[in-house]
Amino acid sequence: MALLEVSNLGIAFGGLQAVSQLDMTIEKGHLYGLIGPNGAGKTTVFNMLTGVYRPTEGNIILDGKDITGKNPEAISKAGIARTFQNIRLFNEMSVLDNVKVGMHNQVPYGLWTGILRLPAYREKEHEMNRKAHALLKIFDLDEQADLKASQLPYGKQRKLEIARALATNPKLLLLDEPAAGMNPNETEELMQTVRSVRDQFGIAILLIEHDMNFVMGICEEIMVLDYGRMIARGDGKAIRNNPKVIAAYLGGD
Amino acid sequence: MQFLSYLISGISLGSVYALIALGYTMVYGIAKMLNFAHGDIIMIGSYVIFFAFGSFGWNPVVSVLFAMAVCTVLGVTIERVAYRPLREAPSLAVLITAIGVSYLLQQVAQLLWKSDPKSFTSIVTAAGLKPLALFEGQLVISAETIVTIIACVIIMAALTLFVNKTVPGHAMLAVSEDRGAAQLMGVNVNATIALTFAIGSALAAIAGALLCSSYPSLSPTTGAMPGIKAFVAAVFGGIGSIPGAFLGGILLGVIENLSKAYISTQLSDAIVFLVLVVVLIVKPTGLLGKKVNVKV
């Protein structure tokens, strides 16, 4: 059975049908790309998958469980995590604490333990710190653990967002334009990171990206969205030669 | 010596403002709303202590703990019933609701306990604490003053530790910075906001106990003026900031007391608000306010 099965998904904002009749299957351990012209509805799809928007039609099944219309907390617990097009880190908190917020749904101690600082508190905090540091090390951020998130350079902030999302222990990771605003070197490095995340964590990754070298370089399967509908899906080569895709990007009919 | 005495009682009054301001500032920071009913929770807490301790003769410490529990339940209930349904509503609707809740509490108190002021017996003196005489009796500091200042410092330290070092505290920080992102990271936003109201209301009960011990007259509108002043203190220090509430509260108390002593008793409130206006002109986000991030 597929990890994520989306069938006939659609959403309308008033009279505007932003996404319609979307079918999507995502398998464990694979890398998928979601591309399309500006305004095609890519981020809207992410927002429906993570519960930010409630779909007006269709179903989202994650690992056999129907998560359609659940709130973002519940979906985070069910195993979907994401990053954002505009970085949305907790800027005033430390790099380490950002990751620890991601671990919130696996909080190993209760409220009173925290307030009264019972012995369990020290032990569990220690364990969380260790896990968070290990995660930061993967992204080469462990030396900046005590800095405020806003003090990191741009490329590292993008990485921290991925680390924070991974801290929620997801089955499916959604990356919304991870390479936006990066220079070619940073993009190259990010490709390595995304690949190694998939390999190390064995999770599925779905990413939105405008940088075609990035998408073609790492995604095993690419889905193309235009005017809220999926117009093509397949590997990089098939997509590049698909006349519908070319028309969507270059205009014409 | 006289100046010192005014200064110390100003710090004590300011400590009460700081405790109340914490409730305003935390709720503002996390739920992005102004809870104008906060001052009236102080009043309810004070009545609970008045009856528990004054009428039933309970132990003063037990009375305060009981009032904290009552206020916590009250604060969480108000949030659940009046504010949570308006979570996505425009902020003006929430503000008006908060003012409505404030009047509701005052009117209910008036119905239950009548509007004539009750004389509050100081729980601090009742707990057997004695005034402190310094410099061969030239400077006498009341036990209420000492307890108020110490309580405020301890609570500030504990709250700062809680917010910065524990998981529920981190959740509060995360929700205050970006509610949407926090929710997507699995933070239970409703529980976090409820927790904030619980802490703020429990502190309001302590503030009520200390306030009424120093100024022993209790009526259904007792909470209104300190509530407004504490709100000013929160804005003064930078609303949303916990150290800001502390600093704003203390400064406000000191300014108020010194103006009463050296300028004019009648004008002291006007002077307090004038200082607020000046601070906001010079630094619109308050003394320790966070810079406003413009979202693009």
In words, what does this structure look like?
The complex is a heterodimer of chains A (253) and B (296). In chain A, 43% of the residues are buried. The mean pLDDT of chain A is 89. In chain A, helix 3 (95-102) crosses helix 5. Chain A has helices at residues 42-49, 72-78, 95-102, 111-116, 119-138, 154-167, 184-201, 212-218, 236-240, 243-250; strands spanning 4-13, 16-26, 31-35, 57-62, 65-66, 80-82, 172-176, 204-208, 221-226, 229-234. Chain A has a domain at 4-79 and 170-250: P-loop containing nucleotide triphosphate hydrolases (Rossmann fold), CATH 3.40.50. Chain A contains ten helices and ten strands. In chain A, strand 1 and strand 2 (16-26) form a beta hairpin. With 253 residues, chain A is an alpha/beta fold. Chain A is globular. In chain B, helix 1 runs parallel beside helix 6 (143-165), helix 2 (38-55) packs across helix 10 (224-237) and helix 11 crosses helix 12. Chain B has a domain at 18-223. In chain B, the strands form two sheets. Chain B has a two-stranded antiparallel sheet with strand order 1-4. Chain B is built from twelve helices and four strands, in the order ααααβαββααααβααα. The longest helix of chain B has 30 residues, at 2-31. Chain B has helices spanning 2-31, 38-55, 60-83, 91-113, 123-126, 143-165, 167-177, 179-184, 189-214, 224-237, 242-262, 268-282; strands at residues 118-119, 132-134, 139-141, 217-218. Chain B is mainly alpha-helical. Chain B is globular, with a radius of gyration of 19 Å. Chain A binds chain B through residues 50-52, 71-73, 76-77, 81-82, 84, 86, 88-93, 97, 100-102, 104-105, 107, 109, 111, 114-115, 117, 121, 125, 128, 164-165, 167-168, and chain B through 162, 165-171, 173-174, 177-178, 180-189, 195, 290, 293, 295-296.
